[in-house]
């Protein structure tokens, strides 16, 4: 799953005379750490292991990255091998200064606090809209309308393709709008890696709409048994994409467990088909045991490369789909009491 920006306002240093970007900073937290500049991360799985640039911080935590980017866009900064990453807006005139912080809620991960450029400021301005990137909302949603207005105002910015993909990829109701937006952005920002991703995410949305027959999946349990999603028909099924390393997923597991205990024996019944995007079998199974999850668990242990995730266009987790006894999708991404409330309407 991708992390939220940790942008802070610091004075921007003067541009370098050598063409290209410069990212530099100093913090005791970074001493001896390696700083990586990466492509878009999980949203470009074919480039998952690609490193665009890296630098070793010295004993005082000072580091400097300098190079060129093929396309002005959003890239990712990562400290060491941690999963948490910072989005950074870069073109070949950007000079970015960075400090570091470490917060308990990020499980000890180091966040880079980046100097504010107009592009970073735009990303920060849109942080309140982050849920649009994780949950489908009604087509007349006020926040969605406000985001689209901001996007129209800033379509000339090289960030526009990134913002369109980040905030519209989950919104099936916006297929027609995206159809008119893409040609404009392709003309303004040729070569942006986000535009093909946005086009791909919108293609086939009808097959994943509420009321559609849920695409079938066939995956393997830890014991080696093959289980189809369709084999669970006759009851309500929560198709749940998660991973042991995903903190929001782990936080949601107790809610799903409580709902399972409440509804598994009512009416047609309720169960869970949990698809892990782990790539480490031991950590996957340890999380299942620690969280006490007594339902069907499957995984192909290839992380974001999972064909199942691609079938359901999963780009962030947790991600869930409620499927009725006939195999049709009836709701998406119900969290907390929302899932219990929905099942309460359907199971007596």
From TrEMBL:
Its main location: other. Gene3D superfamilies: Glutaredoxin. Residues 208-348 form the Thioredoxin domain. InterPro entries: AhpC/TSA, DUF4369, Thioredoxin-like_sf, Thioredoxin_domain, Thioredoxin_ResA/DsbE_sf. Pfam families: AhpC-TSA, DUF4369. It is found in: Cell envelope. Keywords: Cytochrome c-type biogenesis, Disulfide bond, Redox-active center. The keyword Zinc-finger does not apply. The keyword Plastid does not apply. PANTHER family: THIOL:DISULFIDE INTERCHANGE PROTEIN DSBE. This is Thioredoxin domain-containing protein.
